[in-house]
Amino acid sequence: MNSFNKTVLPNGIRIISENIPYVQSFSLGFWFDVGSRDESKRNNGITHFIEHMLFKGTKKRSPRRIAEDIEAYGGYLNAFTSKENTCYYGRGLISSLPRTFDVISDMIQNSSFKLTEMKKEAGVVIDELNDIDDNPEELIFDKFEEILFSGNSLSMPIIGTEKNILGFSQKDLFSFIDNKYKFNNMLIVASGNIEHEKLLRLTDKYFVKDLGLGSTKRKTLSITPAPDHYMKKSVQQVHMIIGRSTYGYKDKKRITANILSHILGEGSSSRMFQTIREKNGIAYQVNSFLNSFLDVSSFGIYLSTNTKQSDKALSLVLNEFRKIREKLVSDKELKKAKEYIKGNIILSLESTTSRMFRIANSELYYNRMVTIDEITKMIDSVTAKEIIDIANEILEENYLTKIIISPKDQALKSVA
Known about the structure:
The chain is of the alpha+beta class and 416 residues long. The chain has two domains: 3-206, Cytochrome Bc1 Complex, Chain A, domain 1 (2-Layer Sandwich), CATH 3.30.830.10; 229-407, Cytochrome Bc1 Complex, Chain A, domain 1, CATH 3.30.830. It contains 15 helices and eleven strands. The protein has helices spanning 46-53, 63-71, 97-110, 115-134, 136-148, 162-167, 170-180, 196-206, 253-265, 271-279, 310-326, 331-348, 352-366, 372-381, 384-394, and strands at 3-8, 14-19, 25-32, 76-81, 86-93, 186-192, 229-233, 238-246, 285-292, 297-305, 401-407. Strands 1-2-6-3-5-4 form a six-stranded mixed beta sheet, with helices on both faces. A five-stranded mixed beta sheet has the order 7-11-8-10-9, with helices on both faces. A hairpin with a 4-residue loop joins β4 (76-81) and β5 (86-93). α9 (253-265) crosses α15, α11 (310-326) packs across α15 and α12 packs antiparallel against α14. 41% of the residues are buried.
């Protein structure tokens, strides 16, 4: 049987392990509760740039050796930055756990930030930025949250701006790490054939640098209704998002909003997919999303279609919103959405990496381990009455924001 253990060290580091005795592998993550939300306009993008730079050499390891020390033993090493946290993680056979721990802890404590590597990596990140700009399916989500959270730090893109990326100095990087990479801001999580005591010993052995303590408070957001926004790009299709801000992780209503999102646009049997793609054949891509943060989420419907059908597509989306506000969902449809969500959660448990991510998110957002049974009970408890109440709270047309990217050489009608 799997077992969870949590230790908070005197220096503030939180260590959580999940022992899965029947696997021969592990996933190990070093999390920092810092992301682009914790930046300013002047240094927007620095969290993501530091994430890249930690792979570019330490005092004792070259960039190549960082990769080889993991991959030579069949392991995997990666990282990501979100708007609220940063994670450096690895996975491999259980025998390589000490080596993986050593490499990642070395990256965190001893990265050298050589000027030559910074210059090269700035070029790589700008290429990544340009890829996003060239891809309307990615760009529109950045633009949606920029408009939705205007005036707040959540509006800023994770990747930053070209000006900032080119302007970061060694001092900027070291200063940001000194301020944000603190022990009480840090979480070490492992899932797999892990002995908790071994994880504690590895922490004691490899974290020799005192990262100190820092503030973990974030400003509460003030969100106001956002205006529509239109962009012209060199694209063939019209891309659009219709949505708004809604409940974050801390709000119990988020579970209900998540089920509503699934009814509307998750999966091939969802209302939007059936209406827009199957019945009318006017969009290849159509889906709903609920992108959640501590105190707020961005919710919406994304689709792409041709310019001749864009007005009709928008009208169909708004009509589905009206229908779900006016009539209770059936027991059958509600049960299907619940089973879809629960099925995805249970399927994710087959991956130690997904399990590690779930444990970390539970700790970061709820300060405790939220069990699968708890989640299942919360999902099952949602009623059709709660769905229609939530729909009337968040799907009122006057409070929705439209973000539309259209071809440069074609004019839209009523949506433009």
